[in-house]
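Reopening this ticket.

The earlier resolution said the output was attached, but the attachment link was broken on my side. Pasting everything inline this time so it's all in one place.
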Amino acid sequence: MRKHIFKAFVLLSIISISSCESDDTDELFAPTITNETTSGNLEANYTSIKISGSVSSEGVNEITSRGVCWSTSENPTIDDDKTTESSNTFTSTITDLVANTTYYFRIYATNSDNKSTAGTSYGAQQSFSTSSLDGTMWDFLITYDNGQTANGDVTFNPDGTTLYDEPSSPGTYTSYGTWSLNGNILTYDIDTDTTNNDYYLFTGTLLGNTMSGTATFNPNPINWSATEY
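Inline output:
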């Protein structure tokens, strides 16, 4: 009887030790993730945001992939949009974003272990917004089909109205208009002379801190580009 009790005690001890060892080992599998981007050092424009972070693993399994995942919905995962970085310390440039939009970001890391406690881990969620055109001023360069050019300062007011003024002749060619943004596509309508029905209709695309496109003027096409002041 005493032998059976001793064997049972040894067996339970082995199970207990194995369980503890398994729990301790599982804890080592989760990568450590650090977010390094804050509102103070954020680099963002109208269509891109830079997110920095670092990952490390104290376990026996190496990190096989890492980067940033993002979405317009909270708690993004690697099933959403993501970058894949080669170094455990990185800065990901997230492009093709939509202006004036809030995005949610999480840094992720995946290791090579197949146990349920391992796999992909995520850092704390962060949210940042791309820039808005509201209240900004831009330097427009207009190129006509005959090669002539003109420069104008355009202010995009938050209420959807605009002010056009040429810096070389302040007040001389001041014109008002309206603007709207659909995704990153700008539509800017400017009336230069309502009596003669002279108007420009600009359409173009935002990219980074610039935009460009075409315009029509009675109804000749012209090209234009713009940079933000």
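Reporter confirms the inline version is readable. Helices lie at 2-29. The longest strand covers residues 102-111.
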